[in-house]
Amino acid sequence: MLCIVGLLIFVSCKNKTPDEESSKPTVYFRLAENQPPDHPTTQADKEFARLVEEKTNGRIAIKVYDSEQLGPENKILEQLQFGGIDFARVSAGMAAQVSPQLNVLQLPYIYRDSEHMWRVLNSEIGDFFLESIKDKNLIGLTWYDAGARNFYNSVREIKTLSDLEGLRVRVMENQMLVDMARTLGTSVIAMPYGEVYSAMQRGIIDAAENNYPSYDTSLHYEVAKYYTIDEHVRIPEMLVASQKIKDRVSEEDLEIIKECAKQSQAFQREKWLLKEKESEKKLRDAGVIITHVENRSEFVEAVSPLYDQYASGYLEVIKKIQEME
Asked: Domains in the chain, start-ordered, CATH in brackets?
């Protein structure tokens, strides 16, 4: 009888396939996101997570925490470096606070247009900057789109450089952006993204700057109806991981994670373009006053000193970016 039981156990184990053995997730990770559930970057985070779980046969499961559930971006970066959080989608502008070389990719007016930026990011230049954050205990996985950032305010239309003068403008906690706004004649206040609506509502600030979808989904248009197209910077988003995940996954699975991240980029870019168009229509229908600056060159000239201030050690890289067809 004992022999029969042993034989049945042996047969039962032998009948399990490799896929069955690995179907249950064995490693769980958290991914932090500050945007709401319907935002293109949040959707891309979830697509990345889906791809990872699919391609690892369930060995790795990543849960996305949107809407700042795990904290604001600056705190998320700290936790990533110490391994308190595993993955995050952050702005390269915020990441530049810990890796200043990333300022090169967001210098004012360095890109001619969106396609120019993407040729740069998906080249060896973009790969170099993803790799450059390794010494900060971070793994750069891929780039996401964040469109062009424009000023919006609750006071007046901005058509010329002088129209910006004296406005109290919120920028993200990035010193280059602080200096950029200051050189344009504004009074600068750096604060977390999640505080902008109430600060605008209470009159602590007059203005901020961001892309169409963020201006829309944050509901900032409710308290600041003047939106100015000046496209002062294109700040790409970054999907990053903590170096600590290497302690919990194999080299093979780490490569799968990196590949899934790159695959999710096309998904995010497509969602982004759709959201931009959708947001612009929604904003116009809501009565937002959208204005194009009359002379962009005066804005470009005003911020030109920032190139030497923030990128003097990367002049050859800047030249390659500017000359890239």
From this structure: 23-146+236-265 (3.40.190.170), 149-234+280-323 (3.40.190.170)
